[in-house]
Every structure is written in C-alpha cells, then in structure tokens.
Design brief:
about 260 residues, alpha+beta, two-stranded antiparallel sheet, 5 helices, SnoaL-like domain-containing protein, signal
C-alpha cells in the first residue's frame, strides 16, 4: 500500500493545538517541618541509603496516558536521581533501553519491520497522533500500520537527541538471588524496578522518491527532503526473557514539517 505524499504533508498530520490535556502526574514532594516545641538539638542526619537498600525513596513512573506529557511538564516529571540511590540494576536498565531505542531507528530506516520485535512488547499500544491515531492491537498492529506511511518515501533517517530515562518503582520486586548475581551488582534485598519511562527527542529526514542513488556529486534540494521534529514518550517493562521493551508509546510532534513543499 502506497499513500500519496500529500497525506504526509497535510496539516491534519499534526496534533490539534491544545489537544494534549494537562497531565497531573507531577511527582509530589513533601517537606517535613521540625517541631518548634523541641528544645533538644536535632539528631545527626542518617547516612545515605545504600544502592542495594530496598528502603531507597520511591520514584513513581510519570503517566503517559490517557494524554502525553506536555513539554511544560517534562522537567518536573523527571527530577534528577541521587547517586546514593542509583543501583547497578538501574544503570543496566538505562543502557538496555537506550540500546533498544537505537534498534528502533535501525529497524525503521532499514525497513526491517521484524526488527521491531526487539523494541515493542507483544501487547504494546501506541498513540501516534493523526493520521495514524491510537493503536491497541499489539506489536503486530504497529508492524502492519507503520510501513505504508514510510515506504512512500525513498528512504528515511531518524536521529535521536535529547533524552531522559527514568527507572521506576512501579511493579518492583525485592531481589533474593545468589552470590553470582550479587557479584554482578545485584545485592540481596535490592528493589529490582520492573518499569521505566523515557522521553527522546528525534529529528526524522524523509527523502522523497527520485532521490535514490544520488550522492555528493548530485545533491538534492529542500524540495526533495521533508523533516519532522518530535518526541518519543515511552513506557517500558521487563519481559519474561529479561529484556526491556516498550509497552506504550506516544509520538508527540514539536513543530510543523519542514520542506519547500510543506
């Protein structure tokens, strides 16, 4: 199925202004005030919690549904982590998630649709905005829906940029494994977080038909390329095989498409 290119340039592709409702999932902060009636000096502060301690402060996952996070909510939804509460498990999770996001760009630009099996969970959902809309039929529906919107071009290049990955407590479980895993950085009693949320800026170049095979000796103009700017907002979960995969994705455009014909 090949859609006419004008569908990809139509203004209906972009989300309607103000369509993303306010998301109230801003991490709460509480401050305990010292009692004014106490005459004794305050006790010394407790030592920072160990990275392997299950008593580390809880970090709830920012909500990505029913509406995507607005750009104004991003900085308050992802406060910086404290080094003392960041475990080896968290660091490994962040690395695995960044790896999977890179595989997404490889699969899309290489048109290796089965490569998306390494990125999306079997039951994944997605909100791509207009004209694709909301996909609730799992990974197979995502793999069937995306190609017609991309193969209308001669090629694409997806570049990932500004990014945050937050490994969350939601669904965490206490680790009680053996010595081998402890040597790998998992301490007995450590809270192994099973969920994560990431936001990744992207710039996507779409090369129009007729540009195939052209190189430095035959450059093309802006009329032959269309650029899209946006964010991937992803919720991740640990799968049964131990890999991190996307369980829900929002695609949020951050501006109009840029091309001489747009």
């Amino acid at each position: 199925m090949h859609l006419p290119s004008f569908l990809l340039l139509a203004t209906s592709w972009l989300p309607a202004p103000g369509s993303a409702g306010a998301n109230q999932n801003v991490l709460a902060r509480t401050i305990e005030s010292p009692s004014s009636s106490s005459l004794s000096p305050p006790p010394p502060p407790p030592p920072p919690p160990s990275a392997n301690s299950s008593s580390s402060p809880s970090t709830s996952c920012p909500l990505l549904t029913p509406q995507p996070l607005t750009i104004a909510q991003l900085s308050s939804s992802f406060p910086p982590p404290r080094a003392a509460t960041t475990s080896a498990w968290d660091l490994a999770a962040v690395d695995a998630i960044k790896h999977a996001l890179t595989l997404y760009a490889f699969a899309i630009d290489g048109r290796d649709w089965d490569g998306l099996d390494h990125v999306f969970a079997p039951g994944a959902t997605a909100d791509y905005g207009a004209p694709i809309g909301v996909l609730t039929g799992g990974r197979d529906q995502i793999k069937q829906t995306l190609p017609p919107y991309l193969t209308v071009f001669a090629g694409t290049q997806h570049v990932l940029g500004t990014q945050v990955v937050s490994v969350c407590d939601d669904g965490g479980e206490e680790y009680d494994g053996g010595e081998e895993e402890e040597e790998e950085g998992r301490g007995r009693g450590e809270l192994l977080k099973r969920n994560a949320v990431s936001v990744t800026y992207f710039t996507a170049a779409h090369f129009k038909n007729g540009t195939e095979g052209k190189g430095l000796d035959e450059p093309v103009g802006m009329k032959d390329v269309m650029y899209a700017y946006g964010q991937y907002q992803d919720r991740w979960g640990v799968q049964e095989d131990g890999t991190w995969k996307i369980e829900h994705r929002n695609l949020v455009y951050m501006g109009p498409f840029v091309s001489e014909t747009s």
